Amino acid sequence: MKKSRQLFVLVLLCLSLSAPSAWAGSFLKSNINGQAFAWKGQVILNAEQGALKEGVYDHEASLKLVEEAFHQWLSVPGVDLDFVWGPQLSDGGNTTRTNYREFYDSSLHACYDDDEDTECLSPIIFDEDGSIIEDLFGSCTQFSTMGVASFKEISRQDIGEEATIIKKAYAIFSGACIAPVVEKEGCPPCERILDAEDVKSLITHEAG
């Protein structure tokens, strides 16, 4: 059973390769000079104030899942990064379909203007009912897409290390297929109901 769960998550994530680069599993990005983008020093993330799935993963439990996932990647030999939480998103208590664009579309240039006083957000969003995923990728996609993560780079033609440092990213984790699952008329059911192991595997993959 353990292998079958891991295989399901792997297959699901591999399928996302055919989707736009914002989806998990996209290819390694590089700038116009062929230099790969990478984080440097410290990864600062901004969590929303809501939960992945109230009654199952409250806000604190949701944050812990993300923390554990990042620490797992940062413990890999040769990785020299630190992970810290920045200020929480000013979402009024919960990031939803009605307000997520404030953070998902927050100014890219604010992160790359080389001014430390300019607010730069890398939002971590818990999409409890999957409606944000659906808004991004189309009707019923919340029942097959459990999460999405990527970084947002800026087009810089200068050559050198500074031109490839990642300063902004985002991740959206859906709780639609965590029991009790979401149902929507006209949509197929969840491809799989995610258990605790599936959720950890998914978030760990996205964090990488």
Mean pLDDT: 82
H/E element sequence: HEHEHEHEEH
In total, how many domains does the architecture comprise?
A: 1
Secondary structure tally, helices: 5
Structural classification: alpha/beta
What is the strand arrangement across the widest sheet? 2-1-3-5-4
Please report the distance between the alpha carbons of the first and last residues.
24 Å
What coarse outline follows from CA principal-axis ratios?
globular
User: In this structure, how is the largest beta sheet organized?
Assistant: 5 strands, mixed
Total strands = 5
Describe the structure.
The chain is an alpha/beta fold and 208 residues long. It has one domain (2-207). It contains 5 helices and 5 strands; from the N terminus they run H-E-H-E-H-E-H-E-E-H. A 5-stranded mixed beta sheet has the order 2-1-3-5-4.
Describe this protein with a few key phrases.
208 residues, 5 strands, globular, disordered N terminus
How would you summarize this macromolecular structure in one to three sentences?
The chain is of the alpha/beta class and about 210 residues long. The chain is about 25% helix and about 15% strand. The chain has one domain (about 1-205).
Q: What topology emerges from the helices and strands here?
A:
Layout: H1 2-15, E1 41-47, H2 59-74, E2 81-85, H3 101-104, E3 123-127, H4 131-137, E4 147-151, E5 169-174, H5 196-207
Parallel strand pairs: 1-2, 1-3, 3-5
Antiparallel strand pairs: 4-5
Helix pairs in contact: 1-5, 2-5
